[in-house]
Write a structure and sequence with these properties.
This protein is globular. It has one domain. Helix 3 links the parallel strand 2 and strand 3. A five-stranded parallel beta sheet has the order 3-2-4-1-5, sandwiched between helices. Helix 2 crosses helix 3, helix 6 packs antiparallel against helix 10 and helix 8 crosses helix 9. 48% of the residues lie in helices and 9% in strands. It is α/β, with parallel strands linked by helices.
């Protein structure tokens, strides 16, 4: 019996002395929220973007790319749906710098420009949209349909006025700021908090039987959760990921980067402010 006790003591001592397994390197995620540079008119309230093809705006975008390169992203991801399980954006394979003088799309002007600058061969497309037969991820029409017969139209009008005021602010900033300066304001935590408040205001639209405001919030959460889940399938320990997305996604995508084990949220504001100070 003594020999067994002695053996157990040796095993316990060896285990105590063994080095603990190293934790995988964290995955850093920087979410860069943008407005739409090419004025597609797809949002509830749309920004009238200044022409990013102007020579001075192209210089500003070069300065932005130089600042973002300091983050040293290992992967760049954009708001586009992929057609293959590897989530590779096929359009980047066709990209050449000539396109920067022709295509106003922010994915081209920011993400592709930076990926090319860094010599990266791949950009990833991680967006999520409903397939045929699946529910709408942004059923705002149902909120409006409920509000009108229930005496809530004034509240909808007030919320839309808030959204339009936010876009008017961006348009006004364009007159005095570089693109990086506008994006610094758009990605400020205070701005993100206001966008989150817009969604949460909608929670009170409804009654005990129908709750279209809660439904919209649930579906918006679901879309963003699926976007981040796609990011997870690609990410590797130690990655530094830049996500270029519409700024309305800022709150939830940053939330997932902060709350998901193994991931770290990185604030883009310092990089944007450095770019904004570059000579125009």
């Amino acid at each position: 019996m003594r020999w067994m006790i002695g053996l157990l003591a040796i095993v316990a001592a060896s285990q105590a002395g063994a080095a603990a397994p190293e934790k995988p390197a964290p995955i850093q995620v920087m979410v860069l929220g943008t407005y739409h540079f090419d004025n597609p008119g797809l949002d509830l309230a749309n920004v009238k973007a200044d022409d990013v093809l102007k020579p001075e705006r192209q210089k500003e975008l070069d300065a932005l790319a130089a600042a973002l390169a300091e983050f040293r992203p290992t992967r760049i991801m954009v708001e586009r749906r992929a057609k293959t399980p590897d989530l590779i954006d096929p359009r980047f394979a066709q990209f050449s710098p000539v396109e920067l003088g022709k295509n106003r799309d922010e994915r081209v002007q920011v993400a592709y420009r930076l990926a090319h600058r860094l010599g990266q061969k791949t950009v990833y497309a991680i967006d999520e949209q409903p397939s045929e037969g699946e529910p709408d991820y942004f059923p705002f029409d149902k909120i409006v349909a409920w509000a009108q017969p229930h005496g809530q139209q004034a509240r909808i009008d007030a919320l839309m006025a808030t959204a339009k005021a936010a876009t008017s602010r961006i348009e006004a900033l364009q007159k005095s700021q570089t693109i990086a300066g506008v994006l610094a304001d758009l990605n400020d935590p205070a701005t993100t908090a206001k966008e989150r408040a817009f969604y949460y205001e909608l929670l009170s639209i409804g009654d005990t039987e129908q709750q279209p405001g809660a439904d919209l919030n649930a579906m918006w959460y679901l879309r963003n959760a699926k976007i981040f889940a796609k990011l997870i399938t690609i990410a590797k320990p130690g990655d530094r990921i830049l996500v270029v997305y519409g700024s309305g996604h800022n709150y939830w995508l940053r939330h997932f980067a902060e709350a998901t084990p193994g991931f770290v949220n990185v604030d883009p504001t310092p990089y944007l402010k450095r770019a904004a100070k570059a000579p125009r």
